[in-house]
Amino acid sequence: AKNLPRAYPGAPPQIPHAIANLLPVTAKRNACLSCHQVKQKIPGGPTPIPQSHYVAWGKGKPGKHIGGRYFNCVMCHVPQANAKPLVQNVF
After folding, report:
1. Which whole-number Å values give the CA distances from 52 to 49, 81, 89, in the listed order?
2. Which residues partner with 74 through β-bridges?
3. Element (H, E) at 71
4. SS3 for 54?
5. What is the pLDDT of residues 32-83, one digit of tens each?
6. Is 20 left (phi over 0), alpha (psi -120 to 50) or beta?
7. Could you give the CA distance from residue 34 to residue 69 in angstroms, rounded to a whole number?
8. What is the DSSP string of 10-34?
9. What Å distances lie between residue 65 and 5, 24, 83, CA to CA?
């Protein structure tokens, strides 16, 4: 699927695919990681998780593990839809 533009500068990218079969994200299961935990972008492949999401546990510095605040992807990233707004956006 083609990515829609971001709602505002710095907005998290939207998810360009269905996610119903990937939910719920729990402490023991995050199906997003199976595709997106890759080192580099491959044309036509999944978008890699950015380095900003990796932290050293307990140290608050860059590391090798997905930081707790980034683990539940759908807290910030939502499935995209090309739908008319219900109300005018004045943001």
Report:
1. 8, 26, 29
2. none
3. helix 68-71
4. strand
5. 999 999 989 999 899 999 999 999 877 778 899 999 899 999 999 998 877 7
6. alpha
7. 18
8. TPPPPB-S--GGGPPP-SS--THHH
9. 29, 20, 36
